C-alpha cells in the first residue's frame, strides 16, 4: 500500500526542543518520530514505531536463527521473586502494592521471572534452552535525559540461556555474541564489542556493544594500535609514574591544616598529586565497611569496586567514618585502621602521602605491604594520558551508546530460586545461565547519531520507515499528482515501502520535511515531468542526484 503523507500523523517541527542536546533527540523529535509524555517517558509516533519495529524484526530474525524461542513475560512481577534473588535493595526498581497489600515490582530486567519458569526444566535432556521476549521495562531513573538514550520506560529484547554446565554456557554465549554482531551490522551501525561489567545484574564475563556517537552514556576506550577495547567501566589503563618525594623508613606525621582535598594537600606540601592516596570509605549492602584507596590524581571506578566487593555499596556516613577512623573525611588513610582496605594496583609500588586518621594531619612515606596490608585490585577509572595495558600504546576515549549487553550469570539466580535439574549421573544441579539484552530504541538513537547531516536524518536502508519518498510537486495540478501516484503504485507493487507526499505544500517545505525525515531514496515528480517524461531521483546521503525517464524509476530504485 502507498502511504499518503496528507493522511498520516507526521508532526514535523522546524525547531528542536530547548532541552535537547543529542542529535538523535533533536532530529527524532523534529522529524515527527517521537514525543515526550514526561521525563524519560516517550511515545513512538507512527514513523518512529515503524523504525522501532524494523529494529525488532532484525533482532527477532537473528535470535530465531540461533534457536531462540520467543515468549512474553509480564511486566507486573511479584516482589518476592526479587527478594529471593537478593536484588530487592535496588533503588531503580519501581515498587507498588495492590489493593490487598501484595507487593510487586515493575522490573527493568527479567532474570527472576525467567528463572521462575525454568524451574519446570527437570532433566538434562531438556537442555539447552534459549528463551527471549520483547517487553516493556521500567526503571526509576533519577537522571532521564537525551531523548531515547536514558529512559524510565523502554522496550527491551532480553534473552536467557540455560545449560547444564559451563561448556554449554560458553557455546550459548558465543552464539549470542555472533548474533548480536550480525544485528548491529544489519542495522548499519559502527560498533565495538568490548569487555564490560555486569553491575547490578550479577555474573561475570560481560560484553557491551558500544556504538560511537556524539552523545551517549558510555565511554568506549580503545588503543590507538587497535589491540585493546573496553567500556570505561572496566577499562584498564596504565597511568604515568608519580614524582615521589623523599623516601622514609617509616610513616612520618606532618601537619596539614585545612588540606581536606587532594589539590589543597599537594599544593601545601609542594608535591605531585599522583604521589598521594585518596581514601573513600564505603558500606556494602551487608553492612561491611570497606576503605577504597586510589592514587590522588585518580577517580575511583564504582562499577569496578562493585565487582571486587561482589556487592553494591553506598558512601559511609560522617558518623560511621568518625567511629571507624577517628577523623573526618579529609584526613583518612589506611595505616592503623581495623577495616578492610582495597587498594588500586597503582599503589602497589612506591611511598605515598596518606591521611593520618587525625584531623589536619597526614603521613609521609606510606608504603603498601610495610605499613598496611591491602587487597590489591584494579579499581581506578582509566583516563586521558593512560597507556594501553596490552601494548603500551595511547588510549583513546569516545562517547558511545550501549546498544547491547550480554553476560554470564551462572547460578546467580537458579540457586536462590531453586531452579535445578537432574544431570546424567542422577545428581541434582543448579541451572547455569546467561543474559542477553538489546534496546531497539537505543539502536534507533545510535543510528541517527551516526547517520545525519545538518538537514536531518539519513536512515540506513534497513531501518528507514519507508524505502522511497515520492514527492509530488503538483501545485494543484491533478495530472502531476496522477503521475506521481502511478509511479508510487509501481514502486509499491514491486515490494518497496512508499511514502507519497501528496500534500498541497510549497516545494521548499516538502524538501525540508523530506530531508528531516531521512528516507534513503527520493523520487521527485513535477510539472516538467509532464513535458519530458523525466523525474528527479536522489539518494538522501547525497551520493546520487540524477534525472531519469519515468519508466526507469523502478529499475533505479531496485538497483541496490
Describe the 3D structure.
The chain is α+β, with helices and mostly antiparallel strands and 560 residues long. It contains 14 helices and 32 strands. Strands 4, 8, 9, 10, 11, 12, 13, 22 and 25 form a nine-stranded mixed beta sheet that branches. It has a six-stranded mixed beta sheet with strand order 1-29-28-30-31-32, sandwiched between helices. Strand 12 and strand 13 form a beta hairpin. Helix 1 (23-30) crosses helix 10 (440-450), helix 2 packs antiparallel against helix 5 (166-186) and helix 2 (46-65) packs across helix 10 (440-450). It starts with a strand and ends with a helix.
Q: Give the strand tally.
A: 32
**Largest sheet geometry:** 9 strands, mixed
Based on CA atoms alone, the radius of gyration comes out at 29 Å
In whole angstroms, the N-to-C terminal distance is: 21 Å
Give the strand content: 25-35%
Low-confidence stretches: none
Q: Could you write a compact summary of the structure shown?
A:
The chain has 560 residues and is an alpha+beta fold.
Top keywords for this entry?
alpha+beta; 560 residues; 14 helices; 32 strands; six-stranded mixed sheet
Give a topology summary.
Elements (H helix, E strand, L loop, with lengths): L1 E3 L18 H8 L3 E5 L2 E4 L1 H20 L3 E2 L6 E2 H7 L8 E4 L5 E4 L4 H8 L10 E10 L14 E11 L2 H21 L5 E5 L7 E9 L5 E6 L5 E3 L20 E4 L6 H8 L7 E8 L4 E7 L6 H8 L3 E3 L2 H8 L14 E5 L6 E5 L5 E7 L7 E3 L17 E16 L3 H4 L2 E3 L5 E3 L1 E7 L1 H11 L1 E2 L2 E2 L10 E5 L5 H16 L4 E4 L5 H11 L3 E5 L1 H6 L1 E6 L5 E5 L3 H6 L2
Parallel strand pairs: 1-29, 4-8, 16-18, 18-21, 28-29, 28-30
Antiparallel strand pairs: 2-3, 5-7, 6-7, 8-9, 9-25, 10-11, 11-22, 12-13, 12-22, 14-20, 15-16, 15-17, 19-20, 22-25, 23-24, 26-27, 30-31, 31-32
Helix pairs in contact: 1-10, 2-5, 2-10
Amino acid at each position: 500500500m502507498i502511504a499518503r503523507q496528507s493522511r498520516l500523523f507526521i508532526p514535523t517541527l522546524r525547531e528542536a526542543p530547548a532541552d535537547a542536546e543529542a542529535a538523535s533527540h533533536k532530529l527524532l523529535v523534529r522529524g515527527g518520530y517521537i514525543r515526550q509524555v514526561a521525563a524519560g517517558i516517550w511515545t513512538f509516533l507512527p514513523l518512529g514505531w515503524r523504525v522501532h519495529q524494523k529494529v525488532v524484526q532484525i533482532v527477532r530474525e537473528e535470535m530465531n536463527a540461533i534457536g531462540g524461542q520467543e515468549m512474553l513475560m509480564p511486566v507486573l512481577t511479584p516482589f518476592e521473586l526479587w527478594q529471593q534473588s537478593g536484588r530487592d535493595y535496588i533503588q531503580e526498581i519501581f515498587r507498588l502494592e495492590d489493593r490487598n497489600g501484595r507487593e510487586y515490582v515493575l522490573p527493568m530486567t527479567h532474570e527472576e521471572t525467567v528463572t521462575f519458569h525454568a524451574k519446570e526444566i527437570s532433566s538434562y535432556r531438556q537442555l539447552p534452552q534459549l528463551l527471549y521476549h520483547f517487553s516493556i521495562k521500567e526503571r526509576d531513573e533519577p537522571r532521564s535525559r537525551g531523548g531515547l538514550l536514558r529512559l524510565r520506560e523502554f522496550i527491551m529484547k532480553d534473552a536467557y540461556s540455560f545449560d547444564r554446565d559451563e561448556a554449554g554456557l560458553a557455546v550459548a554465549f558465543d552464539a549470542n555474541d555472533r548474533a548480536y554482531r550480525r544485528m548491529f551490522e544489519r542495522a548499519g551501525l559502527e560498533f565495538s564489542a568490548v569487555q564490560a561489567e555486569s553491575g547490578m545484574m550479577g555474573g561475570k564475563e560481560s560484553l557491551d556493544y558500544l556504538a560511537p556517537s556524539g552523545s551517549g552514556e558510555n565511554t568506549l576506550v580503545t588503543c590507538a594500535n587497535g589491540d585493546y577495547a573496553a567500556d570505561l567501566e572496566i577499562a584498564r589503563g596504565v597511568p604515568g609514574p608519580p614524582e615521589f618525594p623523599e623516601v622514609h623508613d617509616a610513616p612520618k606525621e606532618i601537619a596539614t591544616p585545612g588540606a581536606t582535598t587532594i589539590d589543597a594537600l599537594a599544593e601545601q606540601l609542594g608535591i605531585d598529586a599522583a604521589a598521594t592516596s585518596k581514601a573513600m570509605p564505603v558500606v556494602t549492602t551487608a553492612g561491611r565497611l570497606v576503605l577504597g584507596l586510589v592514587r590522588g590524581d585518580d577517580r575511583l571506578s564504582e562499577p569496578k569496586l562493585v565487582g571486587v566487593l561482589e556487592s553494591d555499596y553506598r558512601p559511609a556516613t560522617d558518623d560511621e567514618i568518625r567511629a571507624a577512623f577517628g577523623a573526618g573525611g579529609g584526613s583518612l588513610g589506611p595505616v592503623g585502621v581495623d577495616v578492610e582496605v582495597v587498594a588500586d594496583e597503582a599503589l602497589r609500588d612506591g611511598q605515598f602521602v596518606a591521611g593520618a586518621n587525625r584531623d589536619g594531619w597526614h603521613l609521609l612515606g606510606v608504603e603498601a605491604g610495610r605499613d598496611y596490608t591491602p587487597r590489591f585490585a584494579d579499581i581506578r577509572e582509566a583516563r586521558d594520558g593512560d597507556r594501553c595495558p596490552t601494548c603500551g600504546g595511547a588510549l583513546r576515549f569516545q562517547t558511545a551508546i550501549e546498544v547491547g549487553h550480554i553476560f554470564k550469570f551462572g547460578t546467580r539466580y537458579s540457586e536462590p530460586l531453586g531452579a535445578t535439574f537432574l544431570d546424567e549421573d542422577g545428581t541434582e544441579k543448579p541451572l547455569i545461565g546467561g543474559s542477553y539484552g538489546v534496546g531497539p530504541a537505543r539502536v534507533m538513537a545510535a543510528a541517527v547519531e551516526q547517520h545525519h547531516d545538518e538537514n536531518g536524518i539519513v536512515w540506513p536502508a534497513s531501518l528507514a520507515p519507508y524505502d522511497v519518498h515520492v514527492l509530488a510537486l503538483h501545485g494543484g495540478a491533478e495530472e502531476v499528482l496522477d503521475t506521481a501516484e502511478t509511479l508510487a503504485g509501481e514502486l509499491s507493487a514491486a515490494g518497496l515501502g512508499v511514502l507519497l507526499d501528496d500534500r498541497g505544500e510549497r516545494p521548499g517545505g516538502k524538501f525540508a520535511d523530506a530531508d528531516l525525515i531521512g528516507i534513503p531514496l527520493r523520487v521527485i515528480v513535477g510539472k516538467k515531468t509532464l513535458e519530458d517524461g523525466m523525474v528527479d531521483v536522489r539518494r538522501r546521503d547525497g551520493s546520487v542526484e540524477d534525472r531519469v525517464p519515468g519508466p526507469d524509476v523502478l529499475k533505479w530504485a531496485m538497483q541496490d
